[in-house]
Specification:
about 35% helix, five-stranded parallel sheet, 12 strands, elongated, seven-stranded parallel sheet, single chain, binds 2-keto-D-gluconic acid
C-alpha cells in the first residue's frame, strides 16, 4: 500500500518527524520559518494532510488556496484561533488539535510567571545582569508571598484546573470564572463567581486561560482592570489578543497593578512597544507547551489524528471542525 503524503509546515521534535517519516511519505522542512499562504499552497500540492502550527497562514484566504488533495489540518496546538474553521469546513477539510497533553507544561509556565511576578524575579535578574546590584538591604526588591493569596483562574478548563492544583500546594485560595460552574469533583473547593465584577474584586492574582478569537478580544480592558484590587498581579498564558495592551501598561505604570507576567502576545512575535520599558512586567516568548515531553506528545497527538483519517479512514479523535 502506498503511504499517504503529508506536509509538516515547521521543524518538529525529532521523534515526531521520525514517526511521520516511518508512516507517511512525509515532506519535512529544514527551514523553520512560517510559509506564506502561496508557499503553503505550493508545498501542500498532492498532500492529504498538513501537520501545522500557530503562526502558519491558515486564515480563510490561505485555506481557499490549499490544493484539493488536502483532507486534514492537524494543528500542533490546543488553540485553533489561527485557523479559519468555517473556511476549512466549507472546503470539507477536517481540523484537529492537541488537548490535554500540554496541561501540565502550560500550567507550569503560568505558575512560573506568578512566582516571578510575586517575587520580582525578572527585575532582580535584570539588576544582576546589568551589574547594578550594590548589595543586600532589608527592603530590597520586596515582593509578596503567595501563601494565603487568592488566585483567580479565568477559564477553569483543563489547564486552569491543573494550575489550581499546583497553586493549592502554595497555600493559595482558588477562585474561578468560567462559562459554567464545574461539578464539585472538578471544583475541588474552588470558589465560583458568576460575574466579572465579583470575580475580579475578590482576587489578588488573575491568571488568564481563555481562548483567542473575536469573542474574547480585549477582554482585560481598562474597565475590568479597574475592578481588580490595587496591587493585583495579572498573568496570561492563553492568548495575547484577550488583553488590551495599552490599558495593561497604563495600569502597571500607575501602580494600580503590582506586576504582570505574559507568555502570549497579540501579533506575535512582535510585542506591544510599551512592554519593553515597563519595569514590573515579565515577558516570555510563548513557552507554554515548550517541554520535550509535551512537544513530543503534541506531535504524536497530531499523528494519531492524521493516522485515523488518512491510514484507517476513521473519524480523528480530536476533531474540532
Ligand atoms: C503551541 C499553544 O505550542 O497549544 C497552544 O495553543 O499556544 C502552544 O502551546 C503553539 O501555539 C504552537 O502551535
Amino acid at each position: 500500500m502506498t503511504k499517504p503524503t503529508i506536509l509538516l509546515t515547521r521543524r518538529f521534535p525529532p521523534a515526531v518527524e521520525a514517526r511521520a517519516a516511518r508512516d507517511y511519505d512525509a515532506r519535512l522542512r529544514q527551514d523553520d520559518t512560517p510559509f506564506t499562504a502561496a508557499e503553503l499552497a505550493r508545498a501542500a500540492e498532492g498532500a492529504a494532510g498538513i501537520l501545522c502550527a500557530a503562526g502558519d497562514p491558515l486564515g480563510a484566504n490561505a485555506i481557499r488556496q490549499l490544493p484539493a488533495s488536502v483532507r486534514i489540518l492537524a494543528t500542533f496546538s490546543v488553540g485553533t484561533d489561527h485557523i479559519a474553521l468555517e473556511a476549512a469546513k466549507a472546503r470539507g477539510i477536517a481540523v484537529t488539535n492537541t488537548p490535554d497533553v500540554l496541561n501540565a507544561a502550560t500550567a507550569e509556565i503560568a505558575m512560573t510567571l506568578i512566582l516571578m511576578c510575586a517575587r520580582r524575579a525578572g527585575e532582580a535578574e535584570r539588576m544582576l545582569r546589568d551589574r547594578a546590584w550594590t548589595g543586600w538591604t532589608p527592603t530590597q526588591l520586596m515582593g509578596v508571598t503567595l501563601e494565603g493569596k487568592r488566585l483567580g483562574v479565568l477559564g477553569m478548563g483543563r489547564i486552569g484546573q491543573t494550575l489550581a492544583h499546583m497553586a493549592r500546594g502554595f497555600g493559595m485560595e482558588i477562585h474561578y470564572r468560567n462559562r459554567s460552574r464545574l461539578p464539585a469533583a472538578e471544583e475541588r473547593g474552588a470558589i465560583y463567581h458568576d460575574s466579572d465584577e465579583d470575580f475580579l474584586g475578590a482576587i489578588d492574582i488573575l491568571s488568564m486561560h481563555i481562548p483567542g478569537g473575536e469573542a474574547t478580544k480585549g477582554w482585560l480592558d481598562a474597565g475590568r482592570i479597574t475592578l481588580l484590587r490595587p496591587g493585583s498581579i495579572v498573568v496570561n498564558t492563553g492568548r495575547g489578543t484577550t488583553v488590551d495592551d495599552a490599558a495593561l501598561c497604563a495600569a502597571l505604570h500607575s501602580g494600580h497593578l503590582r506586576a504582570a507576567g505574559l507568555d502570549v502576545f497579540a501579533g506575535e512575535p512582535k510585542i506591544f512597544e510599551g512592554y519593553h520599558n515597563a519595569p514590573n512586567v515579565t515577558l516570555l516568548p510563548h513557552l507554554g507547551s515548550a517541554t520535550e515531553e509535551t512537544r513530543d506528545a503534541m506531535g504524536f497527538r497530531c499523528l494519531d489524528n492524521l493516522d485515523a483519517l488518512l491510514r484507517r479512514g476513521e473519524e480523528p479523535p480530536h476533531r474540532v471542525a
